[in-house]
Amino acid sequence: MNGRKPFVLYTAMAFGYAFLYLPIVAVIAYSFNKSRMVTVWGGFSLKWYGELAGNTQILDAAQRSLLIAALTATLAVCLGTLAGLALARFGRFSGRNLLSLLTSAPLVMPEVMLGLSALLLFVSLEQLVGWPERRGLTTITIAHVTFCICYVTVIVRSRLVQMDHSVEEAAMDLGARPWKVFFVITLPLIAPALLAGWLLAFTLSLDDLVVSSFTSGPGASTLPMVIYSKVKLGVTPEINALATLVILFVAAGVTIAGWMLHRQGKATG
Amino acid sequence: MATARPHATVEPWQDPNAEPILRIEGVTKTFGKVYAVDDVSLDIYRGEFFSLLGGSGCGKSTLLRVLGGFEIPDKGRVLIDGVDVTRVAPYERPVNMMFQSYALFPHMTVEQNIAFGLKQDGRARSEIEDRVAAMLDLVRMGQLGRRRPDQLSGGQRQRVALARALARSPKILLLDEPLGALDKKLREHTQFELVNIQEKVGTTFIMVTHDQEEAMTMSSRIAVMDAGRIVQVSTPSALYEYPANRFVAEFIGAVNTIAGTVVDAGEDRVVVRAHELGQDVVARAPQPIPVGTDVSIAIRPEKIDVREQPPSGEDNVVQGKVADIAYLGDVSIYHVRTDSGHVLRVQETHAARTADPHYQWGETLWLVWNAADAIVLAS
């Protein structure tokens, strides 16, 4: 009985990993496929990577998506940290429960609703004050920030609640003013949460199709939008090559972040 | 139980001309409808090791936080060296606090932790280095300055927290349960060390603790708190021998309390009819108490003498049988049940070496105590 248990466990684990990662392995493998047919292996080749390098539409979209994701993540971390700080540290102020509710509402709101309401806002703003003039990079970023803030707020808030508040009090007791306490004590101690929040916001933005579709304008397609429109015309191995590069990029990002968090964890206990 | 420290014979609180370093005037702090601190007034003098003693929720920690500037009282004033600091922010007060959790900065080394307060004061770099080295020496942590808090043991963290809080030479050091996180052996050792450090630096220490033995060992004076109020302020020995009421008597050490009614009052002694004992008890009363008053008689277990034969000529004699024996090595505790069913706790010191208990279960004993050793407390 005892001898069989690991076997059963390992089998279950193997199935689990296969279910999660086999499709990804297939995508990577077929990105090196010589054949134009996606499902037929025609020998090893790097030609789709070459074609990808020449496809300005995809490269432009990728560049735009990365820029939007970076902007979104940075803005969401700034605003989300402020919200998390207010909720975790400012005691009971009027409107606290409302703020708590509002920051978590987009977590459970259907994305279509978020996209639609953002579109309506931008259209009516344009009619009323003439800004934003056209929809594009700016409007997508604003829409992404609005739903990414909640994730950052939740992460930062829970980290602050876990943290021993007396550490901040001790800094104040030793003569540091509140702003100094925030930058010298609080910020370094919640840095792992900020990094985690930044990465999550970055991923959510990079990956978003629905909200982007609503808030984008002519000539401002993001990478998911381009891929989606291409897949409608049939998958080309070019997309596989692109997917492989994205996977590599994400894997590298996660590894570096994990290593940084590990080091930080060692330092801060 | 240790007594007050030898140099505590200098008692500034007895001197009407002494200026207190800290004056608390009618401080009240409520949370919602709960009175955490209720109209507390207190004078604490330079160089004292003062303890706020009480059970959990008695308001001692809130009072300490008021002194540190982390809570602003609803009413009352706090004066340090005659200056009103009631509404002064924590970072502008001439006091420092040692937190119960130690609150060391986990991302800084021991040296950086100790230097933090000095840096905020804008001291010169060389001065900071000297001061940090001196503080590390003071708490005997000289070798460990480059370590981070998570590489230290509980006792070492406690020393770093102390060094950090003392580095800026505060006028008053506030200590919130400073030994609470240490194990029993280390705690006893650290009690004496903390007192030695306090004597060396001469800073006024105000400590919050729930441990009466800790407060007795270390303090020059103790304020016993209950439900947000100060019940009694005294030296450790006065608190033990002359408790102001039943709460203090029962909180500090073990005590037998016997309820009764005054039936005869002399000049400095009263006769109390103790219903629980079914007999009268004589006790000394410093102030006259009118006949008919309901009182409690408190008598410490070690003040009761045990006889195996009926004695004569004693103030108080109570007969009973041994119901329980607890052997504690240095002493034994006997529970003696009187004929009326009341149980009295008696303590016998083992002066001579023997493995046998002095008395046996069920043995009839006569308990004897002097009228002067019993305390009369208002019920």
Short note summarizing the structure:
The complex is a heterodimer of chains A (269) and B (379). Chain A is built from 11 helices and no strands. With 269 residues, chain A is an all-alpha fold.
Topology, pairings included?
The complex is a heterodimer of chains A (269) and B (379).
Chain A: H1 4-30, H2 47-54, H3 56-89, H4 96-108, H5 111-129, H6 137-162, H7 165-173, H8 178-207, H9 210-215, H10 223-232, H11 237-268
Helix pairs in contact in A: 1-11, 2-11, 3-6, 3-8, 3-10, 4-6, 6-8, 7-8, 8-11
Chain B: E1 22-31, E2 34-44, E3 49-53, H1 60-68, E4 75-80, E5 83-84, E6 95-98, H2 110-120, H3 125-138, H4 154-166, E7 172-176, H5 184-201, E8 204-209, H6 212-218, E9 221-226, E10 229-234, H7 236-241, H8 246-251, E11 256-265, E12 269-274, E13 279-284, E14 294-299, E15 305-307, E16 316-327, E17 331-338, E18 343-349, E19 364-369, E20 375-378
Parallel strand pairs in B: 3-8, 3-9, 6-7, 7-8
Antiparallel strand pairs in B: 1-2, 1-4, 4-5, 9-10, 11-12, 11-14, 12-13, 14-20, 15-19, 16-17, 16-19, 17-18
Helix pairs in contact in B: 2-3, 2-4, 3-4
